[in-house]
């Protein structure tokens, strides 16, 4: 049902979009142009990315089209040009390289009666290979894993020290865990979570693949603009899909905390500390490995596309100056072009909210009152509403075609305040706690599934996410944006949470 509605929205939106005709598009100069990388390196020249701003030498029909493109959000602004050029080695000075690039591009633009002024140029350089840092880090980790496996295998009855220090890294132990099915009753009833997680993971992978493709150079930009117009609502869906994980994670956390509380009769500060540290310990090996790879030139030269010198320079600089933000979970307060690993923003936001949730659960169980939880929900709404209002933001960030240029994405305040930062996802996380508490109180009761609940389940699970996408698709401003914006993510998550709750009672799956 959700897919059908998205298709209907897509067709309606496509009919309302304006892009240039093929004839008009043929008048425009190329937005992107690339020299051959292989030939350039064979000539031992520099491979450089350069950005240009265009201006008219005289008023023409072409310049009128360029002015139109600046106003149409669903088209690329054509008063700029992006070139990747082969620059001779003799130009050692940055200013000389700029003059060379400007001269070459202006020659090509003469038939269009346009002039180009260079804004920036970055040339690919082979970064120095720090063999010690990479080899030492990777070798030490591999040796430790093999040692942990050997010790775990040789222990007939594991000591407490071995269990805590070595077993988490043992290949034998982790292989067993991989095929182990938890016997918890809540796991069996909530198996549907795994299916929803898999589908959400596929959506995220497809989204990241799509963004990577859109950030690359496109020879035929009209096809890109057509595809964007068709897929506008899918972009909005991609913006919300991460909320599925952010409502499931606190739900499961709440069940763990309440089970521990039932077992021990208390939930202490020590429990809060240990659960938080365990969360960090699970994530640190992966994050440290990512930083090791990206901070080392060998990793950058192998992982990243050599035809994008700007990306390599940004990654190298970010991983050498801001690596601590990735490792210590505060990367989501940095702009994208300052982040060592762009995808690690989610880990930072999740760990921060995990810690906040543990504190809220501790205070809730300590006071035996949900007042703290209710107050936290209200505060999360007000904080997000104030940020939207005072920063003059929309309810969602809209990745129009121009957004996919590295410079625009890298310094986007809309992306920061409406997607990356902690306050954006706080309400969804708190909603997950509410569902976890409700599920825990009802788990031992035999609940009669009524027709009213089935209708409510279907409307919520299939209707709410689509309703949210429909609301988010129109532009909101001012007070209206501040009132509506903070509600959309938790509403989207609420639909999926009700879906999971229903499936745990054998409704719909």
From TrEMBL:
It comes from the Eukaryota. It comes from Callosobruchus maculatus. Keywords: Membrane, Signal, Transmembrane, Transmembrane helix. InterPro entries: Acyl_transf_3_dom, O2_lipid_transport_reg. PANTHER family: FI21449P1, O-ACYLTRANSFERASE. Residues 1-17 form the signal peptide. The chain crosses the membrane at residues 131-151, 232-253, 273-294, 343-365, 372-390, 416-440, 452-473, 479-503. This is Acyltransferase 3 domain-containing protein. Residues 192-504 form the Acyltransferase domain. It holds the Pfam family Acyl_transf_3. GO terms for molecular function: acyltransferase activity, transferring groups other than amino-acyl groups. Coiled coil: none annotated.
